Automatic annotation (TrEMBL):
InterPro entries: Alkaline_phosphatase_core_sf, Sulfatase_N. Pfam families: Sulfatase (PF00884). This is N-sulfoglucosamine sulfohydrolase. Signal peptide: none annotated. It comes from Arthrobacter bambusae. GO terms for molecular function: N-sulfoglucosamine sulfohydrolase activity. Keywords: Hydrolase, Metal-binding. Residues 2-294 form the Sulfatase N-terminal domain. PANTHER family: IDURONATE 2-SULFATASE (PTHR45953). Its EC number is 3.10.1.1.
Length: 448
């Protein structure tokens, strides 16, 4: 059985040099990619933190695992079965297991409670980059002294937006402690945003935050090498979802769902210096890790091992599915993507794109904003990704697209049935619904 080091971060998308972003400085992750299989078209199952991570660590969709919204208060979503977590699966077959940094895939509770529920021997959650690096390297040193394999899960908060005294009033940017804007290589403003001074200011901060996180990853990988663990350890790096920029995070466009994903498998040339262009999903990560560690893949997972895609050039899936139900408010959406087309179905009249900036004042704006207001979502959105990769031209109403629309709709509906999507029965009630109802019921009962 192989050691497993899984490193993840917040809100990165594919904003790395190795994914073609020439203005961001990420030498450590770029070097890891050169030694790994890099998946060029990997997608999250949700465009926001907790549902995306719940899928990553359980190999199941949010509708199945129960995490349809954020897991911290006042939201309080949780895994239906915490023991489906990869840590519990690995601990049950003899692994040492430890959690360092971001935990957001199940109910946010005290560290010892989180550890016990998910199958970790130890959990030390939270912390900025340097704290996470110190705790992760300490964990590696301790676990390297055992003859048992280890699973170490390391989560960086960066490059998430954070409040900073350096922000202007009404703005929450990317200036965590130790982060400085970085424009040493220029700016890369995504094509779906207006390229203006405000966007460039945000991108400069984002580039600094990504560089800051990359340095932390480099420190952990250097410690792994210094302990002589490289050849015995699978190393996987990914992020939860897309960038915390307008029309990205909290949307089902590729900018919200596309993720960096790379996996180093020492001693296996097929897994070194390779780039795979097939579409893959975060639900494929858990079965892949189990397979490469020489462990059986349990029944009931939504994903499949990526070994055939890497070692035999066989595409492992024809569709990637994703969903949004709750982030800051109820905005139910479902999507299906093939290598060439994307269908998004919007189940409410919410604004066209949920705002992920956590700012009153927006420094960057969608390029397709148009008109005096953002407007509401159409019922269906269909995009030809070969000619319109930024998903700016909705062709759902074009007669010549009727066959694509029909086929994708059928695939989406079949998936919703297979994963027991609660939207098939009725709107999904949030925990806040019951909290508010209980409050007025209690007031009625105690009224004199």
């Amino acid at each position: 059985m192989r050691n497993i080091l899984l490193i993840h971060c917040h809100d990165l998308g594919r904003f790395l040099g190795t994914y073609g972003v020439e203005t961001v400085s990420t030498p450590h992750l770029d070097a890891l990619a050169d030694e790994s299989v890099l998946f060029e078209q990997a997608f999250a199952t949700a465009p926001h933190c907790s549902p995306a991570r719940a899928s990553l660590f359980t190999g199941t969709y949010p509708q199945t695992n129960g995490v349809l919204g954020l897991t911290h208060e006042p939201f309080g979503w949780d895994l239906k079965e915490p023991k489906d977590h990869i840590a519990a699966r690995l601990k049950s077959v003899g692994y040492q297991t430890e959690l360092v940094g971001v935990h957001h895939e199940s109910r946010v509770l005290a560290d010892d409670v989180v550890a016990g529920r998910l199958g970790f021997d130890h959990a030390r959650t939270g912390g900025a980059r340097d704290v996470v690096v110190d705790r992760a390297t300490d964990a590696l040193r301790r676990m390297s002294g055992s003859d048992r394999p280890f699973y170490l899960q390391v989560g960086f908060t960066e490059p998430h937006r954070v409040p900073s005294a350096r922000d202007r009033p009404g703005v929450m940017g990317f200036l965590a402690d130790g982060v400085e804007p970085d424009v040493s290589l220029g700016h890369s403003v995504p094509a779906h945003l207006v390229d203006d001074a405000g966007a460039r200011e945000e991108i400069a901060e984002l580039q600094g935050a990504v560089k800051h996180m990359d340095e932390g990853v480099g420190s952990i990988l250097a410690e792994l090498d210094s302990l002589g663990l490289r050849d015995q350890t699978l190393v996987l790096f990914t992020t939860d979802h897309g960038l915390a920029l307008p029309r990205a995070k909290c949307t089902l466009y590729d900018a919200g769902l596309g993720v960096a994903l790379m996996l180093r498998h020492p001693g296996n040339p097929a897994w070194s210096g390779r780039r795979v262009s097939d579409i893959v999903s975060h639900v494929d990560v858990l079965p892949t890790l189990l397979d490469l560690a020489g462990l059986p893949i349990p029944d009931g997972l939504a994903g499949t091992t990526l070994r055939p895609a890497v070692e035999a050039g066989e595409a492992t899936r024809t569709h990637c599915f994703s969903q949004l139900s709750y982030h800051t408010y109820y905005d139910p959406k479902r999507s299906v993507r093939t290598p060439t087309h994307k269908l998004i179905v919007n189940f409410s009249n919410a604004p066209r794109a949920m705002d992920p900036t956590q700012s009153w004042i927006h420094r960057s704006l969608p390029a397709d904003l148009g008109g005096p207001t953002i407007g509401t979502s159409p019922a269906t959105e269909l995009y030809d990704l070969t000619t319109d990769p930024e998903e700016l031209d909705n062709i759902a109403g074009h007669p010549e697209q009727s066959e694509n629309l029909r086929d994708l709709s059928a695939a989406l509906f079949d998936w919703m049935r297979e994963c027991g999507d609660p939207l098939l029965a009725a709107p999904v009630a949030a925990s806040r619904h019951q909290l508010a109802l209980s409050a007025i019921q209690e007031a009625t009962l105690t009224r004199k």
